């Protein structure tokens, strides 16, 4: 099979891969390299996919931030960490994170904190209860200062 035909097939396959859902340029590149294309050919196909708008980093970041926040209930730190692993540029990450509604962010954080705090009602030591709730929120990717503030408010309201 000719190299040109092989590249056309790889591009069609990659376009189909991108059409299923938003993909980061890094993900597409890894997929292309996984199909044993050499790096130059893979770069060339990726550039064509970007030009044809199959791959759009800003669109990917916006969708990723929205979905991970709304469906996984991740905080900004966790989302940022995951996007860094996908080799997304810092500016794009900041734009995506800024697209999250601040009021919705606080509401979700409040809801998660409240649920976790209530689930630990059998914990007799209030300090441990607060620590466990705060640690849970930080693992979900919420900022430490916000998590501590919300948990302290919850604790104060209960006592």
What is the structure about, briefly put?
The protein is an all-alpha fold and 159 residues long.
Tell me what you see in this structure.
The protein has 159 residues and is mainly alpha-helical. The chain folds into three domains: 3-51, Arc Repressor Mutant, subunit A (Orthogonal Bundle); 57-98; 102-158. It contains nine helices and no strands. It has helices at 3-20, 25-34, 39-51, 57-70, 76-85, 90-98, 102-119, 126-139, 144-158. The longest helix is centred in the first third of the chain and has 18 residues, at 3-20. The radius of gyration is 21 Å and the shape is elongated.
Give the percentage of residues in beta strands.
under 5%
Kindly name the structural category: mainly alpha
Order of helices and strands: HHHHHHHHH
- Kindly state the number of beta strands: 0
Mean pLDDT: 95
Helix share of residues? over 70%
Main beta sheet, described?
A: none
**Mass-distribution shape:** elongated
Counted by DSSP, the helix tally is 9
End-to-end separation in angstroms reads 75 Å
User: How many domains in all?
Assistant: 3
Q: C-alpha Rg, in Å?
A: 21 Å
């Amino acid at each position: 099979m000719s190299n040109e035909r092989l590249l056309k097939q790889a591009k069609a396959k990659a376009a189909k891969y991108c059409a299923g859902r938003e993909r980061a340029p890094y993900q597409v590149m890894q997929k292309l390299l996984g199909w044993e294309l050499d790096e130059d050919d893979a770069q060339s196909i990726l550039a064509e996919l970007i030009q044809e708008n199959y791959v759009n980093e800003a669109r990917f970041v916006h969708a990723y931030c929205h979905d991970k926040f709304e469906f996984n209930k991740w905080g900004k730190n966790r989302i940022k960490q995951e996007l860094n692993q996908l080799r997304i540029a810092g500016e794009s990450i900041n734009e995506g994170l800024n697209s999250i509604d601040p009021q919705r962010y606080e509401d979700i954080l409040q809801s998660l904190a409240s649920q976790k705090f209530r689930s630990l009602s059998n914990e007799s030591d209030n300090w441990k209860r607060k620590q466990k709730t705060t640690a849970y929120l930080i693992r979900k990717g919420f900022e430490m200062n916000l998590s501590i503030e919300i948990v302290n408010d919850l604790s104060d309201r209960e006592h």
